[in-house]
Amino acid sequence: MMGFFTACDDSIDVTSVDENQYTTSSDAIAYLVNNAGNRGTAMVEFRNQGQAEMYLASSKNAESDVVANLKFDEEVLHAYNDENSTEYELFPKELVSFNSDFQLKKGSNKSGKALVQFATSDALSAQKTYVIPVRVEVKSGSIKLSEKESVYLIFVKDLSTIPTVDKASGIKIISCMEVNDTNPLNNLCFTLKESGKPLIDIVILFSANINYNNETGKVYVYNNPNVQHILDNREKYLKPLQDRGMKIVLGILGNHDRAGVSNLADETARVFAQELKVVCDSYHLDGIFVDDEYSAYQNPAPVGFVSPSSAAASRLCFEVKQAMPDRLVCAYAYGSTSSLPDIDGQQSGTFVDYGIHDYGGSSDLSSNYPGMPKSGMALYSQEFNRGYWTADSNLENMRNDGYGSHMIFAMDPFRDNFDRQKQAMESIADKLFDDELVYDEKPFKKDW
Questions:
Q1: Could you list the residue range(s) of the whole structural domain that residue 221 is in?
Q2: pLDDT for 292-332, tens place per residue?
Q3: 445 lies in a domain?
Q4: Is 293 considered catalytic here?
């Protein structure tokens, strides 16, 4: 992304600089950031009306009072589409409003908030992602602007016509489905009595694989016959879930060869992220879940690979979010993905949306994924096949401490232990949502 900025009048001292100078420049350099700490892009889903909370931040304390504002700039999106070979559409300018200026006080490194507000329209499609491209313009004061990060893209989905799965407590339930055994439609069978909402918010299809092609020398996405059948028949198996407001996320797992989520060289990771985007685009998926298991890493690392590391895993997650800023990136807090370092100056918690603990894990993940809010941390994960349950008191503690996600793995009404599975989901309904589980007793068999 590139943008060029000029002052509103001759008395204002504004220049654009390359952000690579952040660590060496003695000047305060301003950039845009949202309330979650995301720089460059953010994703907002809304119904009827929505808003994005933006700030003008500075690498150093400002030497004078600065007043700046945001303006809609469609050229920012044109440049992004050209650079990334994408075709995102503009959100209608007439539906966007900016409610206030940035006020960056002398001696401060962050302004007060400015809201970008937007509204629904019959012309918007729930199946599309639109973009509100903005740039900052300084009205008074003296400050330098980062050329790249003084523009911002707000990716927007209008879900006004789709039911919401959001519950009052705000906690998200992630159902990781072992689709070799189980029909994902079973997530429709469980609702809450008082709210009528589905119990499940996010469904992970577990799992596609990252594989290496010996003939081409390239890494690619492999879907086993079960995963491929579900994707090829998404209208039957996935769309009904999305029509109820659930997100569908594709798991990416090692598959006993040299390729894995934690050993891709930077360029290999970028190319693989683009392939993941093609898969998500083709099957209308809502994101990716990375899991560092079952790879046969080689030492020394072959061409196109590096030694397995959390840095390489973080790079892949970063590149996936760069390729798909409008989709979820989820990481399993296990192996190399259990703790991810910064990439290109961005904290991993700003490009990984959910950090999902291994079974029973309960620690705060702030140091594992710096910048991640508690809402993205999934604690006390349960494994329904092998019987790794969690206590009601753990669910209560998780909620009371402000954590916002919980994962269940291998839910299946046809397993012999289903009564115990249902008991676990009843506890989730009670302790996390103050509600009662309703099971419709109409499970879906695996029919392929």
A1: 172-439
A2: 999 999 999 999 999 999 999 999 999 999 999 999 999 99
A3: no
A4: yes
